[in-house]
Design goal:
Layout (H helix, E strand, L loop, with lengths): L2 E8 L3 E10 L4 E5 L9 H9 L5 E11 L5 E3 L1 H18 L7 H5 L5 E3 L6 H51 L2 H19 L8 H14 L3 H18 L6 H21 L3 H21 L4
Length: 289
């Protein structure tokens, strides 16, 4: 589900702003980049987000300003390696001059802010900003969720509108098989010069067998059950996305079975229309939390 949330905390010696942007994704994927001095907060930020969200790609943007003095420590191994390489270059190529401290100071990670400079007050402010951003995000997602619920409900109604014609035709499938089989046998007998007596009992057995194979009453009943269950889950407030995803697969399974069991064109056309609605449901369900 897409959405945006923002949270900010301003204190006398620092300010923190957290922005969360979410886009659709089947699983929860948190994208968070922090500076070296903020690395100790990464686990807590991700814990807060995963505690409130279960699906979607979440891009986290953390901005801060600190007015108190920050202590830095030298990255001695890196600086020593750099100076050693400079000396080797000077000797090998007979170059003159001395290393410039300004150049060394600009080397990436030459000076690292001490991680223990993150105070409890600052860490608490970051957590507060994240929670505020999550609340803001959830309000937007809740609004989108209502629109999505209405869209899914309209698709379920669309499926239900195609069920009555299927149920009507399903009741006459047995008669269709009887008429078709009798007609084909009559045509074969008419083309044959021999006199063959038709076994009505055997014919009745074949019709019953074919009718049973083409019976779609169970599939129709399961479709209605799945639709009712779908609506029940949509009305719940806890995580429903994965369960709706599973139900969508079951709806599609029943529609596929109906189309494969009979050659009745009315049934096939309505079953295909149902599959079209289910496909639209499947696309939308991927956005549900």
């Amino acid at each position: 589900m897409t959405g945006f949330g923002r949270g900010a905390v301003n204190e006398s010696n620092f300010s923190v702003t957290v922005e969360l942007k979410t886009v659709n994704n089947r699983f929860l994927d948190i994208s968070l980049r922090l500076s070296n001095e903020m690395q100790s907060l990464e686990t807590e930020i991700k814990r807060l987000i995963s505690g409130r969200l279960s699906r979607g790609r979440v891009d986290v943007n953390l901005q801060y300003e600190r007015s108190e003095e920050i202590n830095y420590e030298l990255n001695r191994p890196m600086i020593a390696g750099y100076l050693s390489a400079m000396k080797q270059m000077q000797e090998e190529f007979e170059l003159s001059g001395e290393p410039d401290i300004n150049v060394i100071a600009k080397l990436p990670n030459a000076m690292i802010a001490k991680k223990d400079d993150i105070s409890e007050a600052f860490a608490f402010a970051v957590a507060t900003a994240v929670n505020t951003a999550l609340e803001d995000l959830e309000k937007m997602r809740a609004s989108e969720g209502e629109m999505l619920k209405a869209e899914l409900e309209s698709r379920l109604v669309g499926i239900e509108q195609h069920l009555p014609p299927i149920e009507t035709e399903a009741a006459s499938i047995g008669d269709e098989y009887r008429q078709r089989l009798t007609r084909r046998i009559a045509d074969m007998l008419a083309k044959s010069e021999s006199q063959i007596e038709l076994d009505q009992g055997r014919l009745a057995q074949e019709i019953a067998f074919l009718s049973d194979r083409a019976d779609i009453s169970e599939e129709i009943a399961r479709l209605n059950t799945h639709i009712e269950h779908f609506r029940t889950i949509m009305s719940e407030e806890k995580e429903v996305g994965k369960r709706l995803d599973f139900l969508t697969q079951e709806l599609n399974r029943e529609a596929n079975t109906i189309t494969s069991k009979t050659n009745n064109m009315v049934v096939k056309e309505n079953a295909l229309a149902i599959k079209s609605e289910i496909e639209k449901i499947r696309e939308q369900v991927q956005n549900v939390e």
